[in-house]
């Protein structure tokens, strides 16, 4: 079997580095190009401490895709860049696997339309850690029995978007199984702005940003006389790699966009 040719946008970032490390250790993949903003021409491996890989960075996504013709583009960049990256890839027949968060619902819908139009598969997953995906699935299930719920997401303090993509996806999955009820006291008033968190689908999401953290989330359900807490912790970015690997493999056989790794897991 020919290896799957993969380019990585954001290959010099925290997640990008981990993805490159995973790709070069697995012979079913061929890492063909890194895309950066400022590292053009440099050897990716040397820049990220893996030693020479003989694969360079390009500062232009279009040139990288034209020159290297990857099967898949993995994107771990920034909210401001990801939509255009995915569009460029789809237009050039390259399957995007997107981990970058911060895409609005409407932007995901536009990418889904483009993917279907071009019949080029795509995966957008706000969280590639299988444990986090299970937590979201369990939360959706619990919401049938416990409609009162709040989410607390905790991340490192270099994160650009709040709330996290994971918490928004969790909220969306919970909302499908729960009527939109009013939670808390009907006359509740915030005496400190933001104290009750952000409101989404009828409940609250709270974001914590601190050094020392990686990615953590609690979904807390409350009912008469009991609470149920679901918690997931990514304590290292290697936690995301089995999911990235799965998405790269599965996207090869898709002809539309899949939003969420839960749709790619075996029953
Ligand atoms: N889906 C998932 O499982 C996960 C998603 N993330 C998301 O991935 C994204 C990246 O996270 P980190 O790696 O921690 O961030 P980071 O800041 O360490 O890396 C981002 C990299 O993208 C590069 N970049 C920015 N604009 C670019 C452009 N136009 N072209 C090419 N490269 C560009 C930056 O120079 C940087 O090296 C974030 O949105 C984060 O929320 C992070 C962890 C897991
Ligand atoms: O920025 C991060 O680090 C992470 N971002 C994703 C999110 O917004 O949910 C996934 C994970 O939580 C790590």
TrEMBL record:
Record GO terms (molecular function): 4-hydroxy-tetrahydrodipicolinate reductase; NAD binding; NADP binding; oxidoreductase activity, acting on CH or CH2 groups, NAD or NADP as acceptor
Domain of life: Bacteria
Chief place of localization: cytoplasm
InterPro entries linked: DapB_C (IPR022663), DapB_N (IPR000846), DapB_N_CS (IPR022664), DHDPR_bac (IPR023940), NAD(P)-bd_dom_sf (IPR036291)
GO terms, biological process: diaminopimelate biosynthetic process; lysine biosynthetic process via diaminopimelate
EC number assigned by the record: 1.17.1.8
Protein name in the entry: 4-hydroxy-tetrahydrodipicolinate reductase
Recorded name of the encoding gene: dapB
